[in-house]
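ARCHIVE CARD
CATEGORY: sequence design from structure
SOURCE FIELD: tokenized fold
FIELD CONTENT:
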């Protein structure tokens, strides 16, 4: 299983959600974040933060590469200076609360065991 973390400007989040839906990503978490980066200081003396979103999803390892390539091919961001960024991370194991001592399955690599 792979964890995909996406960073996108707030204005581009609806398009990214549609992209995920088109590629059968049905479960994800989305957070508001304040992005900081390079730029020119504004009238208040520092670079203004960006209103951004962070979208996190776990996908089977065999689908992660394709999802990353879809993001790589993504064009048409509201601000081309701020493209979508994606990180792919390995997930070693997944457990669910309430499963201890019940004989319930442990999840690894997206497959119940």
């Amino acid at each position: 299983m792979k964890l995909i973390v996406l960073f996108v400007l707030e204005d581009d989040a609806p398009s990214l959600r549609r992209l995920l839906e088109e590629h059968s990503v049905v479960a994800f978490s989305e957070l508001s974040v304040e992005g900081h980066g390079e730029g020119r200081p504004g009238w208040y003396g520092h670079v203004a933060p960006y209103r951004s979103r962070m979208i996190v999803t776990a996908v089977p390892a065999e689908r992660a590469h394709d999802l990353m390539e879809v993001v790589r091919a993504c064009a048409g961001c509201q601000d081309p200076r701020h493209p979508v960024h994606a990180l792919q991370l390995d997930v070693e194991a997944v457990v669910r609360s309430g499963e201890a001592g019940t004989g319930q399955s442990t999840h690894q690599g997206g497959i119940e065991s």
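CARD ANNOTATION: Residues 2-36+48-112 form a domain with the Alpha-Beta Plaits fold (CATH 3.30.70.120). The CA atoms of residues 35 and 50 lie 5 Å apart.
SHELF: design records, drawer C
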